[in-house]
């Protein structure tokens, strides 16, 4: 790649980019010294800061957009996507969340052709880049997090495998020679006597003066040296009754079953208690690394697992083990290690509460010492690609070597770090650092690199570190976007990355981190604003008539709505919502009440320039039919809620209102327009030329009429609108209440909305017909179905609109007559009333009710918020 701008070192020092912009002015510039950013970077392909060479990459690999010659057309990808995480590529380096590259490949293959440029602005570990390169596409990746882009860089570059293995093994040999003494422990065998019949001296400190020790003997015990594999540490508590110390391991762990007791006795006073009844014992010491006295929750070593002559043994730490730990604690570490202070955050409360106040406190002194030794040695390597791959191996290891590594007695699973948290358990396992890193090295060298190294090359990828709010990418240059954005308040990325980034010396600038976080004063509105800015940038850089796929997980409908609203406000038109099954759930995903089992995938497109230009020039007047025709052409030829008349009208209304265009159609006239210009079958609407494909789809699947699958239903039933959409899709055939009720209850999670009960919704919005089953008293079993004829639809619609308008006008009178806040209401009545006022130019009435609506009602409903925002603009314009 040619470089048409100054070297990165000069730009970091203050040199200007084209147009007078400085690199540090770009949103999301990370926190770190110039020399550390440079040391991490590999320009022009990868920069641990904004990448000034990105447009050179686009010029070299991209194809300029020309609407006159562009013949691109795709419908949403609706194939089966189910990919597990048990893949050496996926597992090479952990991260808070990621999508398997094999799943992403299916989307990229559908939406692009070879040579196209794929962009992911929330790239995480760079799986989008891996997927793109394996399909001979180009990739541009960015993320706010330096550790994320560093991992992504290593996933997408080539390395000299032989040199990497040679250097890594050399470093581990040198570290073993220098630090191996820290993992020596006594091996005890009963009844074995030493040469000369010597007895054990009274002072155990004399016992191991010779490191090769064949040792001494007393009482028939024989001591030789084993190598520690791991040490288990246990919390110490204070008995609330007698005030004595209790070692949790000794009183609460069932050594036979491997389980932890909820209740346990105090060994001193025999009182029964739980962990919550106790307070932690603490220890205070002077931390020379930070020059401060520190008080932490006390933990003591309780079990050592070690190897002797190729066999594994377990023992309780003896006096020499304790003396060794004490010696290490009193010694000064000769090399650099991070000592950054942990800031207060939503996830850092747990470690701070027990005195873990700085990065190095996440490790035992022994672990920090050996990690710093490894870090020192690989930083001396001259080959930068090899050095960065060893650093990648290092960062892939350090979480598992921290105090986040829980221990469960008799569990054989080596890594017990609780993902998505900074939780430190009452029992932790301190692994042998050299053994752990060596295991990770073998995994990367034998399982990861052979599968990827010959298939990826950084010349096909450009990676940079900054916020997606504003990139240096030129407009209309990207062929496809696949992205996995932050999940609201599910994961606190910068807080969880703090330990990694302490070792990198380059940290996340979380000012523009798109999360819901109390410590950063970011609630749903702030999250929405950041996501809106992000999607506006995606919209700017994506070529017209091209697609964006948003993979997303959050169980809260408010966050789901915020994502969809941000995409629509940015200009995208959402065409399809599907499911991505990643096989395994994160801890928060699995345990959260009401969580979605699988991840959701939103498919949306950017309209053509000519379409947008015409809408702008005509302010949408007379273009309703053209909008629906365009929308239907971007939908797959199969049953989908997106093809229902209710959803089509909702999308048309949202598109016009968000742009402040006059809405000439009401629901009734809109449905008449559909009947005049479009084709309906099985309750779904199509462009005329799409019907053959739809009928072929049904024939292929042997569908008689319609067979609705669960994935085609509304995924969040959180209010009256989504409830009616779900019911409309579910009632493709007449069903009785006993069938409907359990299915509806299973998916519905409605709060903060005065929605009529299920039976009322059915009776007011669907057609009742008698079934063939006779009940007691000669009554027939009532079944409910969709309205089919125009007469049925019109009757239901008129009745519903009359009722909604009556409720709205009542609310409006209440708002005008009282200064009290309206904390709960029927949202559909508000929405219909706002629509009615918008068409009639009654913007003051919209604002009058909005003034009295509780803030949460407005924040949690994007459509209500749209009407209010436009009304404010209209009133200000007058």
Give a quick set of tags describing it.
about 40% helix; 29 strands; 5 domains; about 900 residues; Rossmann fold; alpha+beta
Description:
This protein is an alpha+beta fold. It has five domains: 62-156 and 454-606, 3-Layer(aba) Sandwich (Rossmann fold); 162-444, no CATH class; 617-707; 710-786, no CATH class; 803-877, no CATH class. The protein has an eight-stranded mixed sheet with strand order 2-19-4-3-20-22-24-23, with helices on both faces. The radius of gyration is 32 Å and the shape is globular. The model is unreliable at 190-219, 584-596 and 706-713 (pLDDT under 50).
Task: Summarize it.
The chain is α+β, with helices and mostly antiparallel strands and 878 residues long. It has five domains: 62-156 and 454-606, 3-Layer(aba) Sandwich (Rossmann fold), CATH 3.40.50.150; 162-444, no CATH class; 617-707; 710-786, no CATH class; 803-877, no CATH class.
Integer tally of domains: 5
What global shape is seen? globular
Strand order of the largest sheet: 2-19-4-3-20-22-24-23
Helix content percent band: 25-40%
Radius of gyration equals 32 Å
- Give the class from helix and strand content and strand pairing: alpha+beta
**What is the typical, i.e. mean, pLDDT?**
87
Q: Give the distance, in angstroms, between the N- and C-terminal Cα atoms.
A: 54 Å
The share of residues in extended strands comes to 15-25%
Largest sheet: 8 strands, mixed
Record field, number of beta strands: 29
- Tally of contiguous helical segments: 32
Low-confidence segments? 190-219, 584-596, 706-713
